[in-house]
Amino acid sequence: MTLELAILAPALILVLVLLIAAGRIVIAHGAVEAAARDAARQASISRDPSSARTAALASARAALAREGLQCTPTVSVDTGGFSAPLGRPATVSATVTCDVRLSDLALPGIPGSRALTSHFTSSLDPYRARGDR
Fold first, then answer.
1. Phi and psi of 28, rounded to 5°?
2. Which one of 13, 16, 32, 79 is CB 3.0 to 4.6 Å from 49, fit for a cystine?
3. Full-prediction pTM beyond 0.90?
4. Closest CA to 100 of 26, 47, 46, 14
């Protein structure tokens, strides 16, 4: 019985650590998706590209902080839709990238961090005034 436990215990611990790593990545990916969605939405209700970028970055940081994810996000916002004429459909999109730290798991073969990226597109109101700067 002791021999069986000595053989199986390391394997069970390895499986447990892998499950924790997978769970952490899944939860972090959900947080990054929520941050991208919030960033695109905040950018879409802005009046000009400059304020859209500022609002998207602030919103992404707030969403990640709300989810408890400790990372400094990279947020890129495509504001090309602001140059569309009024009455035409247009969109703004946000891409959020965040490095999730896995180094505290201390398991050989697991990288120290993993970059997670999410992209979301939100429609601009076709009849709302917008700047094309």
1. -65, -35
2. 79
3. no
4. 26
